[in-house]
Amino acid sequence: MKRRSRRSIPYKIISMGILAALLISGSNYSFAKTEQTSNQSKVNVESIVQKGQEILREQKQKANLDAKNKLGITKADINKATNKPFAPKEKVRLIVELTDEPLMDIKTSVFEEKKKLKTHDQVINQLTKKRIKTKLRHQFVRGFNGFSIETEFRNMDAIKKINGVANVSIANTYSEAMKSSKGLVQAQQVWEELGFKGEGMLVGVVDSGVDYRHKDMVMSDKGKGKEKLTKENIQSKLDETEVDDRWYTDKVPTGYDWADKDDDVLPYESSHGMHVSGTIGANGDEEKDGVKGIAPNVQILAEKVFSDNGGGAYEDDIVAGINHAVEMGADVINLSLGSDGGFVGEEDDTVQKAIRLATNNGVLVVAAGGNAYYSTKNDKLSSSTKPYADNPDIGILGSPGVSPYAL
């Protein structure tokens, strides 16, 4: 969003004038006294400078908050509308990042992973000692070192102060986003000219689930002959995971419901994940009302991150889904989800960290750009329902699609 700068020169002139006067008087005083007094005055001058800087910062912040854009909206109005207030006892999902560096290679030993998990236990034990009631959701050691918990909002500040904790943030939630078809990308031309329909490829679909029983979710004989995961070779991979994931079919070999923490990956609440999976790899008979996707012979990993109870997808569940797809050997991970007007940066975005880890380990991560037609569109301010008439902001890319490691 382009911001109009409000002139705040009067504030700065007054502040600088006061500061200069204080400095001059302080300097004259230091020349008039002994060396000991001079040192004392030097300390006073430094404190005056520090105080002056604080005054400048406060006045600058106030000027920025009071500054109005073309629609007469101040930053204070925006902060009030977009920063959802939480009641002290309201349950929230928190992402807790630890100070210890994460593992960056998916091939690291189980021993190294257990060492990292011990640091988690140390922090979690401190939570117990402080009688902070929490429910552990996920633990991460690769790409991002930390864990997610459910607890009351009032506990957030206390958790931040625990030794070993680097950062604590409220988990973002994401909504579905996908509108496309094989005709737009001319997939049929690839089939005809190269004879390739995705054989031997494994795609992780991080979404609302996949109905692996569907008549169009099948493999051709050619696809089965080259499939990456079979009922025989997948078992060793499943044995290494921390969850009860299992084999489903040749088309959808495995997956997990990270939102509800069970192995039921069917899309009860929303068919969006099925829509996405169908676009990617459905292998139905189009002459009999079936659907054929872009790469009908790929295998699909059903990484379900939208709960059966509705609502958005939490970022810790998305990270878990991404990591699982990487562990299973995915060639591509699809993220047809996001939030409009995203920000590039991993400091408070564990999903972008997970995307970087996947990319650095040879996985192509494809993320949605978003469905918004201007970046300032949101459901918080009534004025956002229409873009600016002059010089409209069209920077519409959503998060996590903004990640430089995602396509």
UniProtKB/TrEMBL annotation:
So which residues are the signal peptide here? 1-32
Q: Name one GO molecular function term.
A: serine-type endopeptidase activity
Query: Which cofactors, by name?
Result: Ca(2+)
One Pfam match, by short name?
Answer: Peptidase_S8
State the Gene3D superfamilies in the record.
Peptidase S8/S53 domain
Q: Where are the transmembrane segments?
A: none
Q: What is the name of the protein in this document? A: S8 family serine peptidase
